[in-house]
Amino acid sequence: MILSWYRQNANDFGVVRATRLLVRVVWLRAYVNLSNALFRTRVECPCCGWRGNRFFDYIEMGYTVKNAACPRCDSHSRHRALFLWLQKSYQIENKTGTALLFAPETALGPLWQTARDLQTCRIDIESRRDVEVLADIMHLPFSSDIAVLIWCHHVLEQVSDDRLALRELHRVLTKETGQLIVSAGESSHSSTREFGRSEKALSGNRRSYGTDFIVRLKEAGFAVQRLNYNLSADERRRYSVRDEPFYLCVKN
Ligand SMILES: [Zn+2]
Description:
globular; alpha/beta; binds zinc ion; Rossmann fold; two-stranded antiparallel sheet; 7 helices
């Protein structure tokens, strides 16, 4: 896995920069492994049960997120927070019907399986993930009004026409009872910035959403409610979670 990550970086940024980054990643991971062997437990991962002194730093070209990635299941802050929210607040195990999961997160896989009466359909545009349907979110191969739940996190910023994608999500969601739960990496600026291309230095994102993300959801025909993880300060520390906006949308 780290080899394919290195090859991709070498391709995008050149061998010298990719090699320098690889050395940094390997050194820091060794440091964190040593910390986990020597020092007391301070953090834990709700997705897989791993416990230790700290998580790996998440390092990409141009940015680093400290204490981020679970050494066992590779969950990040958002995955751990959403795992807890799905389990405790949303009570996913009691849900029934059809759920469409876009770009399904590996760390959440075991949790979806606890919802025995929920028929999940895992969808991605690339076959590298454990997916059941290869599909473009802008042109979905589904009938209208079929999904009681649509799960879509950090996908829309990578789609060439996100408004078209949102209209498709609106179309396939069941009227009144269906719920779209969605997030996209939002920045603090007020207006969304369109790059006009896939930006390699920003994980392939085509735009950086501002606080107007909610406006795009409403424009697609959704009634929108902003959610929060409902975690205490102690839980946020223990699971190394940072607050991030996410939304529950129903079809108007
Ligand atoms: Zn984990």
